[in-house]
Amino acid sequence: MSQGVNVRSFESLKVFRSAFVTFGEDAGSALEEARMELNRFLDWILEDQPRYWRGQVRQRQEKLAQAKADLARKKTTAPEGAAREQQTAVRKAKQRVEEAEEMIVVVQKWGRRVQDAVREYDSHARRMEQVLERDQPEAEQRLGRMLEALEAYLAIQAPDVRSSSGAGSLSSVRQDVTESEEPRPPAPSANEDEPTKESE
User: Fold this and answer.
1) Average pLDDT over residues 122-137
2) In the chain, helix, strand, coil percent, each to 5?
3) Based on the structure, what is the number of domains in the chain?
4) Are 60 and 100 in contact (CB under 8 A)?
5) Is 169 a domain residue?
6) CB contact burial 13-37 (16+ within 10 A = b; e otherwise)
7) Where are the alpha helices (DSSP H) in 131-169?
8) Is the pLDDT of residue 136 over 60?
């Protein structure tokens, strides 16, 4: 015997399909935005930062050269021990040059690490993009066909037994059968005497 389809909430299926389509669109946009942000960060760590610190090295070397020149003039024009301020300036200028040179090395190191991380991300993102481009549309079409089939199924009207010609309703037939099965009292015997009235 065939069983009916247990459809509890057809509207919930329609809402799910709509949310599923929205998810695909949002996921695709999120992947694209993430890719753009990663490209901007790569440009910053691989190009902007090295260029900035190379410029800092040049500027700080110029300031170091100026500090050394000031120290040399002070030594020739002032007594011994009077050039302590210029010596301090030279020492600080050297430290700043070394700091900028170290930052170039640090930026290059982190640039390589970021590139490795981005490549790993790309491998996962590409798989997700393939799912969205290939599997998502197929799943949407399948859901659409399921909903159409359910709509057609729910639109079918079940036949009404009471409207069938040449037969009574199911309830009346059941009632007739029940009545025919009920026991009936026996008929009185023909030779039995009629009841007499009691004497007063």
Assistant:
1) 85
2) 80, 0, 20
3) 1
4) yes
5) no
6) eeeebeeebeebeeeeeeeeeeeee
7) 136-155
8) yes
Measured CA to CA, the distance from residue 169 to residue 156 in angstroms comes to: 22
Q: Is residue 22 part of a domain?
A: yes
∠ CA(65), CA(68), CA(74), 5° rounding? 145
The helix (run of H) or strand (run of E) holding residue 25 is helix 10-43
Kindly indicate the confidence band of residue 8, based on its pLDDT and cuts at 50, 70 and 90: low
Of the candidates 154, 129, 109, 117, the one whose C-alpha atom is nearest the C-alpha of residue 29 is 129
Q: What is the pLDDT of residues 88-125, one digit of tens each?
A: 999 999 999 999 999 999 999 999 999 999 999 988 88
Q: Tokens representing 190?
A: 């023909």
pTM higher than 0.70, yes or no? no
Residue 88's domain comprises: 10-156
For residue 62, tell me if it sits in a domain.
Answer: yes
Q: Kindly give, in sequence order, each residue whose CB lies less than 8 Å from that of residue 16, ignoring residues fewer than 6 positions away.
A: 143
What letter represents residue 73's amino acid? R
- Residue whose C-alpha is closest to residue 64's, from 85, 80, 86: 86
Model confidence pLDDT, tens digit, residues 21-59: 888 888 888 888 998 999 999 999 999 999 999 999 999
Question: What is the residue-averaged pLDDT of the chain?
Answer: 78
Length in residues, the chain: 200
Half-sphere exposure of 95 (CA within 13 A, CB side): 6
